[in-house]
């Protein structure tokens, strides 16, 4: 059976119409064209981040800055657990789809089962650590309900990451778009319900909609896989030989991803503990707004990785297209966020606009160096240069976290933003040089 590319009408039509693409003879739905897939992935994250921004705007209006700061710290801790628990299986799935088309159901179930177990264990471990070590975020451990919500959100969040990368591997960014928009919308509606029924919501009440939205997004993602891959039915099962191959390819990518993402998730925790929950409420607001822009290079990098994994000969085209796409899409969005910083933060209240406008305008500049860093990492993953990229990421992470801690303690949030962007600059210069070097696999 000949695979058919989707029409523009199909992509822009009702979500279910996109999801009902026929399964081809090899048991997999035809992937979207690379440019359309990349646009769908970027759009999914931008809309999800935008809905997340609305979530925190409403939270800031409904609860005190201290409760918002604690809830934001708990969300960051949960996301940190998901980044650790993913174990690099998202990247491993992308690498193995090409050679396991006849066993995709086994491949996906093994990956889903493994990360579910690990995410549950790590989330429980964080709750125990929070109750013993942390000063502010011990609220997560002091309530059985909060702890249960946290662990559940960690499991669903890890599965969400894996499902997004599975959609990328299949070339079905439209599925990630539908799933992430649903997550953001449900979380926002859940917060509306909380704000309308609880006069002064606690951090626990603000956190609860994340768990509910994560559960629904996971159910949708598993249903989408069943529609896209013949004979796939979600079940807890682990294929030993295939799982060992997954682990061998996952661990190097896992270390790289973990080192790369950890600083961004640790920063809100540092601000909460080194400054105050009130300060973190402001920082988390500007951090999330900046990440609306940052998600462009992150998703472009993931798509570049997937393109090269499917067709190793396309590296040069994929790298150039990725850099152009990230810079072209990022410029208007970064400019809009920077110019509208005061207005955006005013939506949250005076507490946020008074201390957040300048840090936000500084942070959005980070989209430029992140473009080269993410594309370099994508090329390194696909071409087997993961150790080099991991070493570069480790140096960058150590530099950024050290600079951030010193800057936050001595100069507040503006100094922290300057330190963060400044720490990205040398890594970006190295990345750009390696992408141009002949021995990097991309000719001059």
Number of helices: 16
Quick check: average pLDDT?
A: 82
Q: What is the CA–CA distance across the termini? A: 40 Å
Q: How many domain units? A: 1
Task: Note the quaternary state here.
Answer: single chain
Q: Give the DSSP E fraction (strand runs of 2 or more residues).
A: under 5%
Order of helices and strands: HHHHHHHHHHHHHHHH
Number of strands: 0
Helix/sheet category: mainly alpha
Label the overall shape. Answer: globular
Low-confidence stretches: 1-26, 438-444
Radius of gyration: 21 Å
Explain the layout of strands and helices:
Elements lengths: L7 H5 L2 H5 L14 H29 L2 H21 L3 H9 L6 H29 L11 H26 L3 H25 L5 H26 L11 H35 L2 H34 L4 H25 L1 H6 L3 H14 L3 H16 L3 H51 L8
Helix pairs in contact: 3-8, 3-11, 4-6, 4-7, 4-9, 4-10, 4-11, 5-6, 5-7, 5-10, 6-7, 7-8, 7-9, 8-9, 10-11, 10-16, 11-12, 11-14, 11-15, 12-15, 14-16, 15-16
Structure description:
It is a single chain. The chain has 444 residues and is an all-alpha fold. The chain has one domain (23-440). The chain is 80% helix and 0% strand. Helix 8 packs antiparallel against helix 9 (203-228) and helix 14 (350-363) crosses helix 16 (386-436). The longest helix is centred in the last third of the chain and has 51 residues, at 386-436. 55% of the residues are buried. Residues 1-26 and 438-444 have low confidence and may be disordered.
Provide keyphrases for this structure.
444 residues, mainly alpha, disordered N terminus
Would you summarize the structure shown here?
With 444 residues, the protein is mainly alpha-helical. It has one domain.
């Amino acid at each position: 059976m000949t695979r058919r590319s989707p029409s523009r009408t199909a992509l822009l039509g009702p979500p279910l119409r996109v999801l009902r693409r026929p399964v081809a003879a090899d048991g997999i739905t035809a992937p979207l064209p690379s440019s359309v897939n990349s646009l769908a992935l970027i759009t999914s994250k931008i809309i999800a981040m935008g809905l997340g921004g609305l979530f925190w705007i409403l939270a800031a209006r409904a609860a005190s800055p201290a409760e918002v700061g604690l809830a934001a710290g708990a969300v960051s801790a949960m996301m940190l657990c998901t980044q650790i628990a993913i174990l690099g299986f998202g990247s491993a799935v992308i690498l193995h789809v090409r050679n396991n088309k006849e066993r995709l159901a086994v491949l996906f179930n093994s990956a889903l089962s493994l990360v579910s177990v690990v995410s549950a264990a790590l989330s429980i471990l964080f709750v125990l650590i929070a109750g013993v070590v942390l000063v502010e975020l011990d609220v997560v451990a002091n309530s059985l309900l909060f702890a249960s919500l946290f662990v559940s959100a960690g499991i669903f969040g890890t599965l969400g990451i894996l499902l997004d990368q599975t959609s990328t591997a299949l070339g079905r960014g439209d599925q990630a778009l539908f799933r992430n928009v649903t997550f953001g919308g449900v979380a926002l509606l859940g917060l509306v319900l909380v704000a309308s029924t609880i006069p002064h919501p606690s951090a626990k009440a603000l956190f609860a909609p994340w768990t509910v939205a994560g559960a629904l997004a996971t159910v949708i993602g598993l249903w989408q896989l069943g529609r896209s891959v013949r004979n796939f039915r979600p079940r807890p099962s682990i294929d030993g030989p295939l799982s060992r191959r997954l682990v061998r390819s996952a661990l190097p990518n896992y270390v790289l991803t973990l080192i790369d993402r950890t600083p961004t998730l640790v920063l809100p925790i540092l601000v909460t503990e080194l400054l105050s929950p009130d300060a973190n409420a402001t920082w988390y607001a500007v951090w999330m707004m900046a990440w609306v822009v940052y998600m462009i290079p992150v998703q472009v990098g993931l798509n570049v990785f997937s393109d090269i994994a499917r067709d190793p000969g396309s590296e040069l085209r994929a790298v150039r297209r990725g850099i152009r796409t990230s810079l072209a899409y990022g410029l208007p969005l970064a400019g809009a966020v920077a110019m509208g910083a005061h207005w955006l933060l005013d939506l949250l209240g005076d507490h946020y606009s008074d201390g957040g406008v300048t840090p936000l305008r500084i942070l959005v500049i980070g989209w430029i160096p992140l473009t080269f860093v993410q594309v370099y990492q994508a090329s390194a993953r696909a071409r087997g240069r993961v150790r080099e990229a991991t070493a570069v990421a480790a140096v960058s992470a150590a530099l950024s976290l050290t600079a951030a801690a010193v800057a936050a303690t001595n100069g507040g949030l503006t100094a922290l933003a300057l330190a963060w962007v400044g720490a990205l600059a040398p890594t970006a210069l190295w990345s750009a040089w390696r992408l141009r070097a002949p021995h990097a696999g991309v000719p001059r």
